Amino acid sequence: MARQSMREAIVDAAVAQFHSKGYNAAGVKDITDAAGVPKGSFYNHFDSKESLALVALDRYGAARRIHELAEPGVAPLARLRAHFEFLRGETVAADFTRGCMIGNFGAEIADHSETIRTGVRASLAHWASMISGALAEAQQSGDLRADLDTERTARFVLNAWEGTLIAARSGRSDEAFDDFFDTVFGTLLAPPHTPAAGRS
User: Fold this and answer.
1) Three-class SS of residue 122?
2) Same domain (yes/no): 44, 68
3) Quick one: which of 179, 181, 16 has its CA closest to 82?
4) pLDDT surpasses 80 at 199
5) pLDDT average, residue stretch 167-192
6) Domain range for residue 13?
């Protein structure tokens, strides 16, 4: 197996540190210590902590398996539900202590860093676009009502998910997850009603 590069080690450590501690509490030394590299080597690979945070956002997003929202072979709404079930499982496995790093960055630092705000906005926009694509596929297959605005609905579902994570973490309970799945998949994205057959 090829040895991990120093840059990759720093990025992996940054994702873990940012996710567990937050942006402000995770210092460059914390990250380089976790990566097992000298602190001075950091600036050979990154101009600043902010520039590393942007790379970490991309790495974190990729690990959320967002690309699977576009993979064929599974019905689009089943694919979408499986995506959020995977994320739910991650949160429960972490004992409700971490939430979403993209949302965490948005709440913690976006007001104070234009660089981070732009990165968070781009991450959320990409995620919403992938959700919207799955919803459009569901419409084409007749599994979702045709009058639903897929882009607006995708943004709403994503915003609802981020709020759900806050509620789940603060309550240390998966009750908010049950509300999310019941409301989103049981009501908002429920299959269209089939018109009753006409009586003779």
Assistant:
1) helix
2) no
3) 181
4) no
5) 95
6) 1-48
Output b/e per residue, 39-53; b: 16+ Cβ within 10 A.
Answer: eeebeebbeebeebb
**Residue 45 dihedral angles phi and psi, to the nearest 5°:** -120, -25
Contact 21, 30 (CB under 8 A): yes
Same domain? 36 vs 130: no
pLDDT in tens, 5-17: 899 999 999 999 9
Q: What is the CATH number of the domain that holds 161?
A: 1.10.357.10
Q: Is residue 161 one of the residues assigned to a domain?
A: yes
> By mean pLDDT, which of 2-6, 20-24, 122-126 is the weakest?
2-6
Q: How confident is the model at residue 110 (pLDDT cuts 50, 70, 90)?
A: confident
- Report in angstroms the alpha-carbon separations of 48 from 4, 45, 85, 103: 21, 9, 35, 21
Structure tokens given for 188: 């908002």
Residue 100 counted as domain residue:
yes
Could you tell me the pLDDT band of residue 3, with boundaries at 50, 70 and 90? low
In sequence order, which residues have a C-beta less than 8 Å from that of residue 17 and are 6 or more positions away?
26, 30, 31, 34
**139, part of any domain:** yes
In this structure, how many other beta carbons lie within 10 angstroms of the beta carbon of residue 105? 25
